[in-house]
Amino acid sequence: MIAKLTTRWTLYVPLIALLLLAATWGRELPGAVVALVTAALVGAVLSAVYHAEVVAHRVGEPYGALILAVSVTVIEVALIVTMMISGGEKSASLARDTVFAAVMITCNGIFGLVLLVGALRRRVAVFNSEGTGAALATVATLATLSLVLPTFTTSKPGPEFSPPQLAFAAVASLALYGLFVMVQTVRHPDDFLPVEVDGAGEYLVDPHAHDEPPTNRAALVSLGMLLVALGCVVGLAKGVSPALESAVASAGLPQSAVGVVIAMLVLLPETLAAVKYARRNQVQIGLNLALGSAMASIGLTIPVIAIAMIWLSGPLMLGLGATQMVLLAITVVVGTLTIVPGRATLLHGGVHLALFAAFVFLAASP
Question: Transmembrane ranges (predicted)?
């Protein structure tokens, strides 16, 4: 049974990553070793999220959603804090760049891919507009509170929050995320389940939305491997962070590109999983993953970064620039127009992917 739920590579990769971490800890790494450690880091990220999904499926909701979100956030925060410690003032905007990149990747990249694949499979991608609309509204509110307001506040010069403002944003983000989790898993879970359309054109909740949960033994194995993988991610990130920053600088890319790389690395497993569900005609689950990842990225990362600033020196720039705010505003407007009908075509997916392409291009050439 474990073989069905836990593929061999998800068992071996964390152990290999652990050995590499022990061999490279505290040392300057040559180029070949950096490449090897980077590959192990990517494998550890994929393995950690896989095992988190197994554990989440076993314990059920609302604890399952919390385990998966917290696991992904640990990875993201580990990479951000590690680079902020080693980068000094030049990494002051790293948290903002990473969180904003996560929003763009999820709400345009993953969102567009899910709609595109779903529409290719059945001509029209069908989903529950009530739950998806509530998720987008939460993402838009979190992004505005944490990333837009700092640009316009006047307590501190520059796009920064004062300590009381940062504390408010952290508490508000955590409260909103917790409220959404409660609504999704306790109060209105049917709004977030896959839907089908009957002969009369009515939307019906898919009764086969959930697969059979794994056994206790498989869940315990995954829990142990999850802890190993997360520890490896934190340790290996510290080793490769100088090489990543040097590579970005050597390529002539702006410092904000580091945040984009981090977000893409962290969200790679969610992207693969979302597309997998869309191919199974479970578009709603793919959209849940996309918007849920965006929410976790803001709602859990901002509070942790706020706490970390107690011992981290230097400024924390959270406010977006004009170009980024325009992209965020267009994303919210287009996302709303896409969600309201509860069905989407290839065009909707293409529009979101065009916005994602614009974000990537402007991140490399601002």
Answer: 9-26, 32-51, 63-87, 99-120, 132-153, 165-183, 218-237, 257-275, 287-312, 318-339, 346-364
- Domain of residue 20: give its range: 2-364
Instruction: Report the candidate in 132, 180, 118 with the shortest Cα–Cα distance to residue 337.
Output: 132
- Kindly report the CATH number assigned to the domain that includes residue 68: 1.20.1420.30
Provide the sign of the torsion angle of the four alpha carbons 181, 185, 191, 194, taken in this order.
positive
Query: What six digits make up the tokens of 25?
Result: 């800890």
Tell me the per-residue pLDDT of 65-107, one tens digit each, with 9 for 90 and over: 567 667 777 777 777 777 777 666 667 788 899 899 999 999 9
| pLDDT tens by residue, 283-316 | 888 898 889 888 888 888 889 888 888 777 778 8
Task: Please tell me whether residue 226 adopts helix, strand or coil conformation.
Answer: helix
* CB atoms inside a 10 Å sphere around CB 133: 17
Domain count, the chain: 1
Instruction: Provide the greatest CA pair distance for the chain.
Output: 66
pLDDT of 206 above 50: no
Say if CB 313 and CB 103 are below 8 A apart: no
pLDDT-based confidence at residue 197 (cuts at 50, 70, 90) = low
User: Phi and psi for 84 in degrees, rounded to 5?
Assistant: -70, -35
Closest listed residue to residue 257, CA positions, set 105, 107, 109, 94: 94
Question: Tell me, what's the pLDDT at 137?
Answer: 95
Structure-token match 């002969």, residue found: 199
Which residue in this structure is represented by tokens 């989903």? 127
Chain centroid to CA 318: how far? 18
- What is the number of other CB atoms lying within 10 angstroms of the CB of residue 152? 8
